[in-house]
Design goal:
single chain; mainly beta; 5-stranded antiparallel β-sheet; 3-stranded antiparallel β-sheet; 11 strands; globular
């Protein structure tokens, strides 16, 4: 996880779609939600993935979380992890996710989404 500056934990019941190919060969890695819906992530940016605690968690390197735009969680590729000769020319630079599919987002170990609401002081 040390190379993952960005960790996305998906909704409960989600799982990583198994693949027989190494991630650096695949164009995308799939996450399957509990309702069967599939989400694709850029496999060449995935530095770890697991789903042993009841939801899929994926660590991405070279990606930034930009917040919510037009009701979507927005991520940008800020640097490639592999040399150009191993990357597809059709690789996505921008990734968007529906907020309902994501439980939390952590950047460098700090939860950034959903943001924690300050506690209301008792009066």
């Amino acid at each position: 996880m040390e190379n993952a500056s960005l960790v996305i934990e998906f909704a409960p019941g989600s799982r990583v779609q198994p693949t027989t190919e190494p991630l650096h060969v695949c164009m995308s890695m799939g996450i399957v939600l509990s309702d069967g819906q599939q989400i694709l992530l850029p496999a060449d940016q995935v530095v770890f993935h697991e789903d042993s605690n009841g939801s899929a968690r994926v660590g991405l390197g070279g990606m930034s979380f930009e917040g919510i735009q037009e009701k979507q969680l927005v991520f940008w590729r800020v640097r490639d992890l592999l040399p150009d000769e191993h990357l597809s020319p059709q690789r996505e630079l921008r990734v968007t996710l529906v907020p309902e599919t994501v439980k939390s987002i952590h950047v460098r170990g700090n939860r950034v989404w959903p943001s924690r609401e300050p506690a209301n002081p008792l009066h």
